[in-house]
């Protein structure tokens, strides 16, 4: 038995956030410390954050062992959380310190509770307007009532602190003494529930019953966009709150809008705790502490909220569970959807996975009976699913360099006449994907990556979508020196904006693309304005496919439905299916029925056909049969190994060596493919080579991978990353 308390002077083993491969021994400080306590410990000349993980090893010279500096004023990490971090680390083959960093991602955790000054929007106008003052006031308005510290506010507005002080003196900004980290106001589960339709009522009953059983379980909640899934899972949240347990609702970062928070507030009477990139550091710290001591009942957050130290978690909702952004693609490579299920299994909580177009993984788990499944079949109220049709581009007459077909143009014109909104969807940021020299054929590429530079005319620059590098748009070809021969080739959303403006000169047009906004808040504000009817024609990337409500929208036109079908990605069909169904689902959410038109050169492609006829079950069955035949996820297991380094030969040599010495993998019947250049073979000047490991579903893949990788000593400039269940094959 591990003791739960260590009196002063006892040896404790501390896991720190520093990249060391073992626990460090310290002496418990004055007053002792609990198992799981968050502590500050000396490491060389520094003080670092750690957690008391167990008794010390005692294999060090005890005279040299130093004492824990102090125990932080935070609820100790619970056993189940430590378990979760260990299991998540084992699953993703992540070192524990990196895992602990995920579990301690709030600033100033060690600061003592005390009063501090916070700043809010005041009621008076300043005597004199300046650009700097306007920036401060805009930030305060943007964040709708949230409190800032002086430093945070000045940083967010990009002004000096004296500007804020000046506004305080004028009464335009209020300075208040506030206690740090106050509890979140209690939520009332019976405040604003809606009367449910019969489908919804069945769903809500089932979820409530599952919660009452007090144990782990996962339910797939499937229903088209607008069918009322949110209302149903909020009923499950309500039940969870009634039981005195905590709930977590995860959304893709991009869907975490003020609109959603207001909806939760309307349901429960108070705002929930929020955890995402749009909240201030002060609020994040408060959230972390309050979750730990049970003074936050509901957290609405992005994927990393999963690592908050909940006290008694009863329910995790993963909304838009198919969304690829749940997979973290750098640092710790984890899929928040899968980790949510793991966490719930460890603490006996319920999981609800909500989606209109579930991932094949979740669909298969429901098929196999591992997950319960609930279906909402109709849209809520009068709204019906849009009518879907293909526009066969092989027969449309289009001049060179134009992308809106006559059929689509007529449909948009028709909506304009009726005062309804249209959405033109193209999943390509920027103006044009290729800049080509008409004299020599040279295409402008990134200096650091094997990728073409994308023209962003709005920003007047070329940009690499791999590394973010930008350069001015050249007038002279860097290859042959010809002047004025460089041409933009292919469409991006900015270019679509031009074409549509030329077709409909009097229409109000908005181009929605994440890179056109200074901040996530500004983007969300613009989306809200569009939803109110501020625009006739919206042109957007997949940003618009994600959870936004455009009630006046009745037409969706997809410029290139074939785009996602190219490439060798195992999930290409699934992704295209999901994305097209999601985008189409944007149309006709209110009383007016909508239509979705897909421009395609392959109207008979099985995926395009499945999208059009909406027969989802047969699409999934067919896709499942194909994957089962190939022994790939979810019917087999895969791991990607990415090796990268500055010297191509060294990277390949290591890759070949690894492929040759695959004993531990062969023992479990796994196969190694590669090494091959990664699809983007060079990023930021580093060459990238990929190996792919494929194993049976039941094979102990992680243990074998760990053994395999341990055989190799990596030179300092080579990096190896293991990606379990890779989602993208970059
Ligand atoms: P989904 O999450 O499936 O996209 P929502 O829960 O957002 O669907 O519901 C779509 C719309 O219908 C929302 O505006 C929501 O407020 C409304 N709605 C859903 N269920 C009800 C209900 N039972 N009573 C009143 N309005 C509802
Ligand atoms: Zn680049």
TrEMBL record:
Q: Which SUPFAM superfamilies match?
A: P-loop containing nucleoside triphosphate hydrolases
**Subunit-structure text:** Component of the replication restart primosome.
InterPro entries named in the record: DEAD/DEAH_box_helicase_dom, Helicase_ATP-bd, P-loop_NTPase, PriA, PriA_3primeBD, PriA_3primeBD_sf, PriA_C, PriA_CRR
Its gene? priA
Q: Looking at its record, which EC class is this enzyme?
A: isomerase
Q: Which domain of life is it from?
A: Bacteria
* Residues covered by the Helicase ATP-binding domain: 210-376
Give me the comment on cofactor binding: Binds 2 zinc ions per subunit.
Q: Which family does it belong to?
A: Belongs to the helicase family. PriA subfamily.
SMART domains, A to Z: DEXDc
What the protein does comes down to:
Initiates the restart of stalled replication forks, which reloads the replicative helicase on sites other than the origin of replication. Recognizes and binds to abandoned replication forks and remodels them to uncover a helicase loading site. Promotes assembly of the primosome at these replication forks.
Organism listed in the record: Yoonia vestfoldensis SKA53
Protein name, as recorded: Replication restart protein PriA
* GO cellular component terms, A-Z: primosome complex
Q: Name one Pfam family in it.
A: PriA_3primeBD
Annotated positions binding Zn(2+) 2: 446, 449, 464, 467
Is Membrane included in the keywords of this UniProt record? no
Annotated binding of Zn(2+) 1, by residue: 437, 440, 477, 480
Q: Which UniProt keywords apply?
A: ATP-binding, DNA replication, DNA-binding, Helicase, Hydrolase, Isomerase, Metal-binding, Nucleotide-binding, Primosome, Zinc
Q: Name one GO molecular function term.
A: ATP hydrolysis activity
Please, one GO biological process term?
double-strand break repair
Question: What cofactor is needed?
Answer: Zn(2+)
Q: Which reaction does it catalyse?
A: ATP + H2O = ADP + phosphate + H(+); Couples ATP hydrolysis with the unwinding of duplex DNA by translocating in the 3'-5' direction
Enzyme Commission number(s): 5.6.2.4
């Amino acid at each position: 038995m591990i003791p739960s308390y260590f009196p002063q002077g006892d040896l404790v083993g501390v896991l720190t956030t520093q990249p060391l491969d073992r626990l460090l021994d310290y002496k418990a400080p004055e007053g002792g410390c609990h198992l799981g306590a968050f502590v500050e410990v000396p490491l060389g000349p520094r003080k670092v954050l750690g957690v008391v993980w167990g008794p010390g090893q005692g294999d060090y010279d005890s005279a040299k062992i130093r004492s824990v500096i102090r125990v932080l004023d935070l609820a100790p990490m619970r056993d189940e959380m430590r378990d979760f971090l260990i299991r998540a680390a084992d699953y993703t083959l992540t070192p524990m310190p990196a895992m602990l960093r995920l579990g301690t991602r709030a600033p100033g955790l060690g600061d003592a509770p005390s009063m501090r000054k916070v700043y809010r929007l005041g009621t008076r106008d300043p005597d004199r307007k300046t650009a700097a003052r306007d920036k401060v006031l805009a930030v305060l308005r943007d964040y709708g009532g949230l409190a800032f510290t002086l430093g945070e506010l000045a940083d967010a507005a990009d002004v000096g602190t004296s500007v804020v002080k000046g506004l305080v003196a004028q009464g335009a900004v209020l300075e208040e003494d506030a206690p740090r980290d106050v509890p979140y106001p209690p939520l009332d589960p019976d405040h604003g529930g809606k009367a449910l339709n019969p489908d919804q009522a069945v769903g809500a009953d089932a979820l409530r019953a599952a919660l009452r059983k007090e144990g782990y379980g996962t339910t797939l909640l499937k229903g088209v966009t607008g069918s009322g899934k949110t209302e149903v899972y909020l009923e499950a949240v309500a039940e969870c709150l009634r039981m005195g347990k905590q709930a977590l609702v995860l959304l893709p970062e991009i869907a975490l809008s003020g609109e959603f928070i207001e909806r939760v507030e309307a349901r429960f009477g108070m705002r929930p705790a929020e955890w995402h990139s749009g909240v201030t550091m002060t609020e994040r710290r408060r959230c972390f502490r309050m979750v730990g001591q049970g003074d936050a009942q509901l957290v609405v957050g992005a994927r990393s909220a999963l690592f908050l130290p909940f006290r008694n978690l009863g329910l995790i909702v993963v909304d838009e569970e198919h969304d690829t952004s749940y997979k973290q693609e750098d640092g710790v490579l984890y899929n928040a959807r899968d980790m949510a299920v793991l966490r719930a299994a460890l603490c006996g909580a319920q999981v609800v996975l909500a989606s209109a177009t579930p991932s094949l993984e979740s669909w298969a788990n429901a098929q196999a009976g591992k997950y319960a499944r609930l279906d909402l079949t109709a849209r809520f109220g009068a709204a019906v699913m849009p009518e879907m049709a293909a526009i066969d581009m092989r027969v449309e007459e289009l001049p060179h360099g134009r992308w809106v077909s006559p059929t689509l143009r007529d449909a948009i014109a028709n909506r304009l006449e009726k005062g309804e909104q249209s959405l033109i969807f193209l999943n390509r940021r920027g103006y044009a994907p290729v800049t080509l020299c008409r004299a020599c054929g040279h295409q402008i590429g990134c200096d650091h990556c094997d990728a073409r530079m994308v023209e962003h005319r709005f920003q007047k620059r070329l940009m690499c979508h791999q590394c973010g590098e930008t350069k001015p748009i050249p007038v002279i070809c860097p290859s042959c020196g010809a002047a004025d021969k460089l041409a933009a080739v292919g469409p991006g959303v900015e270019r679509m904006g031009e074409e549509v403006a030329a077709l409909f000169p009097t229409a109000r047009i908005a181009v929605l693309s994440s890179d056109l906004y200074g901040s996530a808040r500004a983007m969300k504000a613009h989306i809200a304005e569009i939803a109110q009817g501020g625009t006739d024609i919206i042109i957007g990337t997949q940003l618009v496919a994600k959870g936004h409500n455009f009630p006046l929208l009745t037409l969706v036109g997809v410029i290139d439905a074939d785009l996602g079908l190219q490439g060798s990605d195992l999930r290409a069909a699934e992704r295209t299916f999901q994305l097209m169904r999601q985008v189409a689902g944007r149309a006709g959410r209110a009383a007016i029925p909508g239509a979705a038109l897909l421009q395609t050169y392959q109207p008979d492609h099985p995926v395009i056909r499945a999208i059009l006829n909406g027969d989802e079950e047969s699409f999934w069955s067919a896709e499942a049969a194909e994957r089962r035949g190939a022994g790939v996820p979810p019917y087999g297991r895969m791991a990607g190994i990415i090796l990268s380094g500055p010297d191509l030969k060294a990277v390949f040599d290591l890759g070949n060596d690894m492929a040759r010495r695959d004993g531990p993998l062969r023992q479990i019947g796994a196969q190694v493919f590669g090494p091959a250049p990664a699809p983007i073979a060079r990023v930021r000047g580093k060459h990238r080579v990929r190996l792919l490991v494929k194993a049976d579903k039941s094979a102990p893949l992680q243990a074998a991978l760990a053994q395999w990788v341990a055989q190799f000593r990596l030179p300092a400039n080579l990096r190896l990353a293991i990606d379990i269940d890779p989602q993208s094959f970059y």
